[in-house]
Structure formats: structure tokens, C-alpha cells
Amino acid sequence: MRLFLDANVIFTAACSTQGLSRGLFRLAASGKGALCTSAFAHEEAFRNIQKKAPDKIADLTMLMQQVDILPEPHPLWVTRAERLPLAAKDAPVLAAALQGKVDIFVTGDRRDFGHLFGQVLEGVKILTPVDALEAVVR
Predict the structure, then answer these.
(1) Domain count of the chain?
(2) Rounded distance, CA 23 to CA 5, Å?
(3) What's the domain range around 116?
(4) CATH for 23
(5) What's the mean pLDDT in 17-39?
């Protein structure tokens, strides 16, 4: 099972060794899934770590060794994502997951993605970290 991690999930995993987001990394390390993201989402997580928790940069670097970076999406995928509707800043992230044909898009961003939670778009299920953990364990 391939899980695409939004920037907020990567950020949270780097900041908390015991949280749900870090649990996704533990499951992947045990062979129960593969993690991926986009360069755009990775860069956003890195910027936020630098700004809000610079002492966690080493944790982020270590975690990212488990994460594959998918190619940036074709503009047509971005346009499709913008129609969901999604903010211009979020569309490229979801578009990368859709183009990459992952199984689950994992985000904790209720404000921008909450209206999509539980939906399946182009074969990609949009889930919170807790729901993604549950789906992988099942």
C-alpha cells in the first residue's frame, strides 16, 4: 500500500516521536506500506520545521530517508485538483498523489482537505493520519 504524505503529516512526524504521523513511519519501516510525497510538500515541511522547530531538522532528514519523492504533476492533474475545489497552494500536492496513483493521500489539514476526507478520487482515498493508520493495519 502506497501512502502519500502531505506536508503537515511530515512536519508532525518530525516534531513528535509518539504521534500518529510518526506511527505511519513505523508501519512503513516494518514493511506494511510505502511512503511517498512530492518535492513541493517536502519543501513546505522543511520550511515549516526551519521556522517553527529548527531543532527537529535532523529528525526530518532521518524520516525523509523512508520517503520516495514523486515527480511533480502535469498541469492537467493540477487543474483537475483545483476543480475539487482546492486552494492553488494545495492542488499541486493532491495532483502529485493522483498522478502517482497512490492508495491513500494522508493529511491532517481539515481546513483545506476536510471536505474530501473519506472520498476516493481517481483511485486515491483521502484520509486523516488516524484513518490511514487504521487502513494500513487492516
Answers:
(1) 1
(2) 12
(3) 2-137
(4) 3.40.50.1010
(5) 95
